[in-house]
Design a protein that fits this description.
There is one protein chain. By secondary structure, the chain is an alpha+beta fold. It has 2 domains: about 5-55, Roll (2,3-Dihydroxybiphenyl 1,2-Dioxygenase, domain 1); about 75-125, 2,3-Dihydroxybiphenyl 1,2-Dioxygenase, domain 1 (Roll), CATH 3.10.180. The protein is built from 2 helices and 9 strands, in the order E-H-E-E-E-E-E-H-E-E-E. The strands form 2 sheets. Strands 1, 2, 3, 4 and 5 form a 5-stranded mixed β-sheet that branches. It is globular and about 50 Å long. It starts with 5 loop residues before the first strand and ends with a strand. The mean pLDDT is about 95.
């Protein structure tokens, strides 16, 4: 069994789509729009077959996202090397995103950084 895709609702679907394409080499489909409900979505595919669905619809509730909460907390992206973790983390920081931790080697042996990116959501960048 495998996870087919992960989905997230977002306020600014175009901005979020652009983020995953620009920084994480995602490939976006042309999108879907249901004119009756004004639901919109994009599927973003990554090299290994993983997919992220970003969605939007009217009247979403967007409460503050504490980093210390229950539920899904981050999406991890493997970028292949420590150098690439460092480069991407620095690029995101230079572009105004908040680096929460790292780059560093964690107690369980991962080399990673954690960055708050689109709409207060966190990604982990790892080897």
């Amino acid at each position: 069994m495998k996870i087919e895709h992960i989905a997230m609702y977002v306020k600014d679907i175009e901005q979020v789509r652009d983020f995953f394409v620009k920084y994480l080499d995602g490939k976006s489909n042309d999108g879907y729009h249901n004119p009756q409900t004004d639901f919109r979505s994009y599927f973003i595919s990554f090299d290994n077959g993983a997919r992220l669905e970003i969605m939007n619809k009217p009247d979403l509730v967007d409460e503050e996202k504490s980093l210390n909460r229950t539920g899904f907390i981050h999406i991890a992206f493997s970028v292949g090397s420590k150098d690439r973790v460092n480069e991407l983390t620095q690029l995101l920081q230079n572009d105004g995103y908040h680096v929460v931790s790292g780059p560093r080697t964690t107690g369980d042996g991962y080399y990673e950084s954690c960055v708050v990116v689109v709409e207060g959501n966190q990604i982990e960048i790892t080897v």
